[in-house]
Amino acid sequence: MEFEKTIAAIATARGQGGVAIVRISGTGALAVLKKSFSHRGKYESHRMYHGYVLNESGEKIDEALGVYMAAPRSYTGEDVCEIQCHGGDVSARRVLEQVLRAGAVPAGPGEFTRRAFLNGRMDLSQAEAVMQLVSAGSEAAARASLRQLTGGVSGRVRALMDQLHSIRALIEAGDDFPEEMEETETAGQVRSQVQALADQLRKLCDPRAARIITGGSRVVLCGRPNAGKSSLLNALLGAEAAIVTDVPGTTRDVLTGHLELGGVDCEISDTAGLRDTADPVEQIGVRRAEEALTQADVVLAVVDASREFTPEDARLLQAAPRRTLCLLNKTDLTQKVDADFISGEYNIPVLQVSAVTGAGLDQVKQALLQRINPGEAPIVAQRHLEAMARALQAAEDALSALDAGFPADVCGVDLARCGDALSEITGENARESVIDRVFRDFCVGK
Ligand SMILES: Nc1nc2c(ncn2[C@@H]2O[C@H](COP(=O)(O)OP(=O)(O)O)[C@@H](O)[C@H]2O)c(=O)[nH]1
Ligand SMILES: [Mg+2]
Q1: Which of 17, 207, 315, 397 sits in a 20 to 30 Å window from 301, CA-based?
Q2: Which atom number of ligand 1 is nearest to the Cα of residue 248?
Q3: In the chain, what percentage of residues exceed pLDDT 70?
């Protein structure tokens, strides 16, 4: 596909840095470079040249490296030139201004990647991975984006499409040779293949893992006042995030800090101690604490080991959801509560810790990681999960039709719907509006 305009933008982030890159793409890219760069003579493709960026009157704007990447071996699939100039906003901006004067036009958000997609250099899922990768907030998110960028999602969609094609072929064979293929035999074979397809779709979609990889996980500390929740937050983060005092009811709002566990971003919230209180501010704090608990991936229920076990502790542990770990804190002091008692009575794993000495905190981190671990979920983008869910629904509709005794070819409509949903992921025959939505959130220069 040939675009009329040669586009240019600063591809690197704003602010001070060693180098900045001005990227130019389109049929006029080399002409623009030649008009703006001091290197005379031949530009071999994929070779760096040292020189100066010059304005139209031959004044030096910056010392830089220039490179020409001939189509189609470039990011966009078009002729691409890049100027690596000095970092900082001024140099890069002046180089860009020169490049625009030399005939390029400013690139829109994601326009380079959009051209790469439209030129068949990557499919839509890979294009989205580029944006996911540059905005990744954790190692797990970056790893997942890279898997997607290198075809992890595309490959799976292709495999599912192949399965769909063979199911359709089976149905058509049944139509063409009705006397050779018993109707019920065809339906049985189709059914088992559609079932296998549905099973795979279900396995690929793990919204919880996807959310944890891309958005991080939520861990909430709860317990009665003075159990040591704020001290534990600080100890886990290795920072003084929360105020610690021996006055019960010190923490009134939900306070959060971030920890990266096994590459996964983990947001740990400290909450107001759960108790009945007349103080209206503390009451709001308690309500917020209860709200945070419902959102938690893991709940850390803190019990003070140095004091008698109270009915409030009992209530907390009784109400504890399955995803709860009990932290028996202050084990550096004389212990009045026994870990075996809690695990026996409430069927909850108990870890003995001390926020003051740090004892047991590594085990807490390990236990958290074990519970949160999202694995290498192949599908992490919301748009892909939604399309997969529609594909799964269509496959299940096909199964229902077969189970209701309809002949195999009746479920062809459902299977077509399944295929349409899958092809949205890779962007084959994608509607313009879908493509627009994908690239709308891109940054300029990517
Ligand atoms: N000895 C000892 N004291 C602790 C420990 N954890 C917290 N404390 C003390 O217990 C009191 C209440 O702690 P805080 O973290 O504010 O409890 P919160 O109300 O649950 O947030 C403070 O005086 C802390 O210094 C611990 O592991 N050992
Ligand atoms: Mg507190």
Answers
A1: 207
A2: 19
A3: 96
Question: CB-side exposure of 134: number of CA atoms within 13 Å?
Answer: 16
Q: Which atom of ligand 1 is nearest to the CA of 227?
A: 20
- Residues in contact with ligand 1 by the CB-under-6-Å rule are 223, 225-231, 244-246, 250-251, 273, 329-330, 332-333, 354-356
Where residue 137 sits, what CATH number does that domain have?
1.20.120.430
Same-domain check for residues 198 and 234: no
Which atom of ligand 1 is found nearest the CA of 221?
20
| Domain with 20 in it | 7-123
Ligand 1 pocket: which of 231, 237, 336 to mutate (most atoms within 8 A of CB): 231
184 C-beta neighbours (distance < 10 Å), count:
11
Report phi then psi at 265, rounded to 5.
-75, 130
> Would 338 be classed as within a structural domain?
yes
Give the tokens for residue 107.
Answer: 């690139």
Same domain membership, residue 353 and residue 234: yes
pTM of the complete model: 0.82
Q: What are phi and psi of 30, to 5 degrees?
A: -70, -40
Rounded distance between C-alpha atoms, residue 145 and residue 380, angstroms: 8
Render pLDDT for 181-229 as a digit per residue (tens, 0 to 9): 566 677 889 999 999 999 999 999 999 999 999 999 999 999 988 999 9
Residue nearest to atom 16 of ligand 1 (CA): 244
Convert the pLDDT of each residue in 52-67 to its tens digit. Answer: 999 999 999 999 999 9
Q: 261 CA to middle of ligand 1, Å?
A: 24
Residues 196, 220, single domain; the answer is no
**From ligand 2's centre to the CA of 227, what distance in Å?**
8
End-to-end CA distance of the chain: 19
- Number of domains present in the structure of the chain: 3
Question: Domain check: are 105 and 70 in the same one?
Answer: yes
- Looking at residue 246, its pLDDT comes to 75
